[in-house]
Amino acid sequence: MNRIIKIIFLDILKNKIVLAYAFILALLSWSSFGLEDNTAKGLLTVLNVILFTVPLVSILFATIYLYNSSEFIELLLSQPVKRKKIWLSLFLGLSLSMVLAFFIGAGIPLLIYAPDSVGIMMLIIGCLISLVFVALAFLSSILTRDKSKGIGIAIMTWLYFALIFDGMVLFLLFQFSEYPIEKIMVGITALSPIDLARIQILLHLDVSAMMGYTGAIFKDFFGTSLGLIISFSLLCLWVIIPFYISLKKFKNKDL
């Protein structure tokens, strides 16, 4: 298993897309801190990168890589190796490479310019978001053999969590503004890993105006260490559940 992870990890590190991804993250992060007159503004810029760019690249690259590695996966299946080990090795190899690219691109500037709880929180959240969308990529790719359909599912998944979900939440809030639905909104927020990530970071930055409706409600109810523990646990579940479902499907899939 370790050998498979090493092969996948080294193969991905040589990929020009991953190198370009790390370079673009570094360019955006260094320029954000270098051009702004204070660290807080730079952190907000990097936050937008973490919430939109990192999920998109993670889910798209992982999905395309899995489809392009179909022959390699079939070769591994012909060996006396359990399917669980193959799928887990692929996940760990992809996850480690995407997390490393994020750390080199955005993590180093964060640790240099914001070596405090906010910078460390953003670094952890960025790594978790990478893992979440790699896990969602595994689920997207296992749902269909058609590469174009799989990539389409991946793009729609990102689009839903990045844009559509907040629109739906705002619609519900305006439609039912006369009713006490705050507690329900807190539960609905758990259905989006990007919203959970945004809330965790903005609670530390204390920028209430930037948090939106879901973030403000979450702050009212969970603006404590307990809230952070709950949201961290939910983010971890967003990694585990999609990957577990994809693993179950991979075990039973006829390749």
Structural class: mainly alpha
Q: In oligomeric terms, what are we looking at?
A: single chain
* Strand runs, count: 0
Radius of gyration: 19 Å
- Spans of at least 5 consecutive residues whose pLDDT stays below 50 are none
> Describe the biggest sheet?
none
**Kindly state the mean pLDDT as a whole number?**
84
Give the N-to-C terminal Cα separation: 20 Å
Into which percentage range does the β-strand content fall?
Answer: under 5%
Note the overall shape: globular
- Helix percent reads over 70%
Query: Number of helical runs?
Result: 11
Helix/strand order: HHHHHHHHHHH
Structure description:
The protein has 255 residues and is mostly helical. Helix content is 85%, strand content 0%. The chain contains eleven helices and no strands. The chain is globular and about 55 Å long.
Helix and strand topology:
Elements lengths: L1 H12 L2 H20 L3 H30 L1 H8 L5 H31 L3 H27 L3 H29 L6 H8 L3 H13 L6 H11 L2 H28 L3
Key structural traits:
255 residues, mainly alpha
